[in-house]
Amino acid sequence: MATQSELEDIDDLPPSAKLVFKVLEYKGALTQKEIVEESMLSARTVRYALERLEELEVVEEDVYFADARQNLYEIDVSCDTSADSADAKNCAD
Questions:
Q1: I need a labelling partner for 30 at 20 to 30 A (CA). Which of 22, 42, 67, 83 fits?
Q2: Do the beta carbons of residue 40 and residue 20 sit within 8 Å?
Q3: Does residue 1 sit in helix, strand or coil?
């Protein structure tokens, strides 16, 4: 889950980037093509949104082993140690 400061940064993003973030939050790790299908945004818009989210370090890019030509995107699940106990417990699981 994103920290409070990351959520404030996300609030400053364009609506398309917020939508991509929410799609990844609900669906989990997806390829860019899958994000395009789920969000119904253009590929170029999704690419720009992912770049913005990566700049904020709230989205991680990884190799998609089923097709090495694609990347897998997911929300960065690294936890802040100052998070409340409920979030800290979720990170421990």
A1: 83
A2: no
A3: coil
